[in-house]
Amino acid sequence: MRYQSTRGNSPQQSFLEILLGGLAPDGGLYLPVQYPKVTTAQLDSWRGLSYADLAYEVLSLYSDDIPEADLRALLRKTYTEQVYCNGRPQDNAKDITPIHWLGEEHGTRIGLLSLSNGPTLAFKDMAMQLLGNLFEYALKKKGQHLNILGATSGDTGSAAEYAMRGKEGVKVFMLSPRGKMSAFQSAQMYSLQDPNIFNLAVAGVFDDCQDIVKAVSNDHAFKARNQIGTVNSINWGRVVAQVVYYFQGYLLATKSSAEKVSFTVPSGNFGNVCAGHIARMMGLPIEHLIVATNENDVLDEFFRTGIYRARKSAETLHTSSPSMDISKASNFERFVFDFMGQDGKATAGMFKQVDETGGFDISKDAVFKDLSKYGFQSGRSTHENRLETIRDIDQRYGVMIDTHTADGVKVAREHLQAGIPMIVLETALPIKFEETIEIALGRPAECPPAFKDIKSKPQRVENIDADVNQVKAFITTHLG
Ligand SMILES: Cc1ncc(COP(=O)(O)O)c(C=O)c1O
Ligand SMILES: N[C@@H](CCOP(=O)(O)O)C(=O)O
């Protein structure tokens, strides 16, 4: 499979080439030149496979430069019950991402796709554990080192750091928004003392951190000299690994591939739901993909109105679902490229307009009228909605959900369709946002034993301004 940039002005590359490179040289994001199609017969033949073997079926369509035996071995090493049982050991842990059915509402089943039982208790572990193993494999093959520059609003950072701990030839420089994450999230990252991990607390919001990552990646000389790579969903490897659990969710929810399901996805950087879009483009029978935002509702506004209006850092609100406090969703560009007919020049023009004027308006264009063919719907949730939903799901079903998943459930309930199962992606465990859980339920969230004393451990973090040059200087100094 060859990969093209969404800005249409970079040479096509293979899977392993883009894996270590991250952002395309023209500033765009990589996508395959075409989405491989999965037939219903093929889909039915995948029923009953282990998660690792299902992942093989999906990923082998995208990574033909990794020999079959190597890819299968990497996937079997990654997707084990031992790795994905950290949060809440469950009866069906062998499914890796089991569905926890809540019940029936308005004539349809509603369930949670459990994605947060990995080492850091958020869905990011699903792809990040694989990325760690893929990096190690690719670097060994090429005899290279990799210095990862990442941005986090709370969960990508710890997932990446836990996945890269002790990995030979890999250093991690992680930018996080100072004071904007939960105490548990900060402690997870900042308590790591590994010599290959560097945490930088930026005076700004997540979007500032992500802008710095992109600016550093766009300095081609610096990137090449310092072997800079990415672990954010900028990296196609992250997105494609997330495609797998849509297939798993679908197969677990249905008996035959004639059936349809809908997914609701708590969204911030649009990476998770972009993976759902790709699964749908491959032919997975998804009725709707419902984008659920918090008060930072740029994406909801776009799907309702056709107007994309990225907010400035100062307008980005600090909410009780802080991992979704994002106003410039990186992966939205991948979807724009698709709905613009994979026209790189048009996509580059639209994002130039975003840089210059803050957004674009397609409300009157034919492409917006045509957007329904992609199956997207959307909604937003607020702090009050979050508290109410956490309370309701606890009382009605005896299940405690985190604040981001609560945003998903709130919005999912507004889009139920009789007879079409609704699967809400559970993106983190409640303990990560324990302060809000305590407010909602008046009792603490359950904490896995591995994290009992996480907040009392000594922390190692450097404060830094939202300044590209300061970040570059830090990297240069610490690479020696
Ligand atoms: C817990 C949680 N939920 C939802 C999201 C949103 O996912 P995405 O950024 O892929 O849209 C994130 C981070 O992005 C997250 O950490
Ligand atoms: N919510 C994320 C933000 C980064 O998203 P990514 O999917 O692009 O890595 C986080 O928790 O850091």
Automatic annotation (TrEMBL):
Keywords assigned by UniProt, alphabetized: Amino-acid biosynthesis, Lyase, Pyridoxal phosphate, Threonine biosynthesis
Cofactor: pyridoxal 5'-phosphate
Domain of life the protein comes from: Bacteria
TM stretches of this protein: none
Reaction it catalyzes: O-phospho-L-homoserine + H2O = L-threonine + phosphate
Residues annotated as domain Tryptophan synthase beta chain-like PALP: 98-337
Domain Threonine synthase N-terminal, first and last residues per copy: 2-79
Pathway: Amino-acid biosynthesis; L-threonine biosynthesis; L-threonine from L-aspartate: step 5/5
Enzyme Commission numbers on file: 4.2.3.1
Cross-referenced SUPFAM superfamilies: Tryptophan synthase beta subunit-like PLP-dependent enzymes
Family matches, as CDD domains: Thr-synth_2
NCBIfam families the UniProt entry points to: thrC
Family recorded in the similarity comment: Belongs to the threonine synthase family.
Database matches in PANTHER family: THREONINE SYNTHASE FAMILY MEMBER, THREONINE SYNTHASE-LIKE 2
Name of protein: Threonine synthase
Source species: Polynucleobacter yangtzensis
